[in-house]
Amino acid sequence: MFKIMFSNWDALLSGLGYTLMASVIALIASLIIGTAFALMEISLHKWVRVIGKAYVEFIRNIPLLVIAMAFYVIVPQFIMQMDGFTAGTIGLTIYTSAFIAETVRAGIQSVPNGQMEGARSNGLSYMQAMTHVVFPQAIKLVIPPLGNQFINLVKNSSVLAFVAGFDLMYQGKLIANATFNTFDTYLAVGVLYLVITMPMSYAMRYLEKRWHTA
Amino acid sequence: MQNFINAYSAVNLSYLLRGLWVTIEVSVVSIFFSFLIGTLLGIARYVKIKYFSAIVGFIIDLIRNLPLLLLLFFTYFALPNIGLRLSVIPASIVAMTVFESAMLAEIIRSGIGAVPVGQMEAARSNGMSYSQAMLQIILPQAFKKMIPPLVSQFISLVKDTSLATIILLPELTQHAQIIYGQNVNYTIPMFVALAVLYFIVNYALSVGSRIIDHRLN
């Protein structure tokens, strides 16, 4: 395993880089989109709520692979050239945004209603009350699940291997095909994934426990 | 529009539905095995036997933190390297089962943990053995509360079967790819069909879970 790892270190490292890059970009983008949809889901207008809910339910119930492949296959055919990495990252973003929307919605709704009413009756607008009063209280509840979403993103970014996205899984596939030593290669790839996800998952568990008792 | 009409010919539709059937078969078998193994692992984590539970917990964490795609690759491509050759369907079921039992173990452990300790104490002091109390008192109460997270894990299992296209499991996504591979004009209709079929299966699961949850609690 170590022989494979060291003789293909550059390829594996660049794969890891692409995996992390896709995960970070998708996390930031889906955080923005997800929050927007969470706000739609709790909107005061019925139709806005329906649209938000429909988006979340629809995306959550179809596989990430189908979303990523759709971007990889359909967009270049009709709209514009798009490489695998971009298509995969857009797919990841859209898929994750639905889960983040649910997380953020739950976080906002766990803040007692009186907070919003109190802020509104003190003369803050709906948006002001959201950003200055409700969000800061919701964030503590939302951060551990968001960390778990990031771990999921790192794992899910392996679908980039389907769309030639140069990620860790893709590089592993290339190395395995070149060396025929599938066992050691995939073991090495697994170790590299764990190096990122394990510490994060323990950190999130620690945060959850600490903030839960605080 | 003509593309849609041509793409959804009887031949193509029945081919898609056959793919959907494989998806469902693999999902059901994996759900069955991973539920059994997950329950055992969840109990093993809950009872806190010295060293044993910690080791089980660590292995569960390792598996949970790996991508399922890697486990699929590993069972199908890497195990033959050390002399264990599985064909496509068993390999997919093994990989899905290993991954999902780790996910379910975590859900089941926290579900058992949510049952008040008094239940176990009362059952024990009424003369039941530990395993009797676990099976007849604790687990039924725990499963009642666990239905929503369990079903959402099953939904992600159904979605994850699509990853097995990479080892050419003849399931829904793979069949759709074959159809649009033959005619570029069918790409959009096939993706629409994929989204709709997966949505129907998974949404039915989540509605079902809501109904059962409502009845029980």
What does this structure look like?
The complex is a heterodimer of chains A (214) and B (217). With 214 residues, chain A is an all-alpha fold. Chain A has one domain: MetI-like (MetI-like fold), CATH 1.10.3720. Chain A has helices at 2-7, 9-41, 46-60, 64-78, 84-109, 113-121, 126-156, 168-179, 182-213. The longest helix of chain A is centred in the N-terminal third of the chain and has 33 residues, at 9-41. Chain B starts with a helix and ends with a helix. Chains A and B meet through helix 3, helix 4, helix 7, helix 8 and helix 9 of A and helix 3, helix 4, helix 7, helix 8 and helix 9 of B.
What descriptors fit this protein?
heterodimer; A: 214 residues; mainly alpha; MetI-like fold; 0% strand; B: 217 residues; 9 helices
- CATH homologous superfamily (4th level) name of chain B: MetI-like
Ends of chain B: how far apart? 47 Å
- What would you call the quaternary organization? heterodimer
The secondary-structure element order of chain A is HHHHHHHHH
**What's the mean pLDDT score of chain A?**
89
The CATH class designation of chain B is: Mainly Alpha
Gross morphology of chain B:
flat
Helix fraction of chain B by DSSP (H/I, runs of at least 4) = over 70%
For this structure, the CATH topology of chain B is MetI-like fold
> Which value, in Å, is the CA radius of gyration of chain B?
21 Å
Main sheet of chain A, how many strands, which sense, barrel?
Answer: none
**Count of discrete domains of chain B:** 1
Unreliable stretches of chain B, pLDDT < 50, 5 or more residues?
none
Order of helices and strands of chain B: HHHHHHHHH
Q: Write the CATH homologous superfamily of chain A.
A: MetI-like
The CATH class designation of chain A is Mainly Alpha
Please name the two chains that share the biggest interface, counting residues whose Cβ lies under 8 Å from a Cβ on the partner chain. Answer: A-B, 40 and 38 residues
* Average of the residue pLDDT scores of chain B: 91
Any low-confidence stretches of chain A, pLDDT <50, length ≥5? none
Structural class of chain A: mainly alpha
